[in-house]
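Lab notes, practical 5.
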Amino acid sequence: MATGQVPYSGLTLHQMLTAMIRQRPPVVPDSLPGWLQQVLSQCLSFNTAARPSVQQLLQAFQEQQQQQQQQQQAESVPQLQQQTGSSTLLSSTSQGSYQVLVSQLRSTSPEECQLAATAISKLAAESQSHSDAIVAAGVLPLLVALLRSAQSAVQEAAAAALTLLAASSQQNRDAVIAASAVPLLAALLRSDQYALQRQAAAALATLAAQSQQAVIASGALPLLVMLLRSDQLAVQMAAAAALTSCAAGSQGNKDAVVASDALRHLVLLLRDSSQGSVQEQAAATLANIASGSEQNKDAVVAVGALPLLVPLLHLDEPLLQMQAVWAIRNIASSSQLHRMAADAAGAIPALTALSQPGQPGVLQQAAASALHLLGAQGC
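Output from the prediction step:
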């Protein structure tokens, strides 16, 4: 974190887990301030009980804020004075902590900015009330500014904080979009750092749930399609999730995803039987696209999706099966030719099996619905 390098970069998941268990924590650089060295060393401890809590991290920030000299507080102190009418921190501990985080985000130290963004992520993950208060404190423009940092680790931490804040409520998603985060997040998809690619795509997936148009207009679609070809599972997952969100809503959104050449890459992901989670997300994207016009359904069938979706119905993975059911149902929902294609691919016996008692209730109902649609048409 303090070096600006992605931890365990270049390792497989198995190698990373092994390294985390067997290797000693990385050495904190001596070039950092003493208080920050201590905090980072505690955060890297193998002993979870020795790691600081969110409140302890915030306390460390507060103590550092109070110890800074007047010239180092030229920006933060006037801001606090204006908001409180005094030269002291806010009387409310939580509100004061939020303002300390705002001050730390203004720091010229990348390490301090990153640590502040990480603390914001932890608070946002705890409750919506934290998220609302953090947004109200004015952190969004500062986090968006950090997306321009020269250090990928700082960019990643800022993107993660924006993701969690946006996920907390529709109002906060609107605020993140209004803060002009989307174009910068889209630009980060071009990074050569896998972790940053994944986090930027995850942020766009969250924001697209509120405003597909903002993400599409940013030029993110071809970059997300490019990331579907990544050799990193987490990157593929995040990119496919963003495309799923973009393909929701209006017909224009679905057309834009189809025009981005996403379909053939999503179908390639369906072929990878070793990665059920990626198959699930790819099927979800295809289901959203196929819920659109007849032309959308034609395009999904034309890339060979049906013969790859039907085998997924036989896997003992309910979430994956559910997405495959909805994709097949949407494809076959309006055209006799598409219903015949689903029947030819073997969908009816597989759906019949899933509609029987003993299957998870929601999956059983979805399969019965799809089966009824196909059977009602004489397939």
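Observations recorded by the TA: Residues 69-93 have pLDDT under 50 and may be disordered. The longest helix spans residues 110-126.
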